[in-house]
Amino acid sequence: MKKYTKTTLDKLEHIFEQLEYKVRYEKGNFHSGYCIVEDKKIAVINKFFDLEGRINTMIDILNSMDFDRSQLEESSQKILDRVMPENVAS
Known about the structure:
Layout: H1 6-18, E1 22-26, E2 34-37, E3 42-46, H2 51-64, H3 74-83
Parallel strand pairs: 1-3
Antiparallel strand pairs: 2-3
Helix pairs in contact: 1-2
């Protein structure tokens, strides 16, 4: 099990910024804990999630997204290598 910190959350939020997505934490009726508004590039995450829940949700969202890693800074690519399962986000 990985140990996540506020710094990890900040780095994941920065990755979303680089992908031109806004991350919002709001209450809502999310079956999966989050909602993606593709046409507006907004990821809405359940605001009641704790730090680990927010990070795991962001990782789930990134796993489901189709994006080119080359549009990310090198430091962000390294973060993805650390937190995401292998062979994802090529």
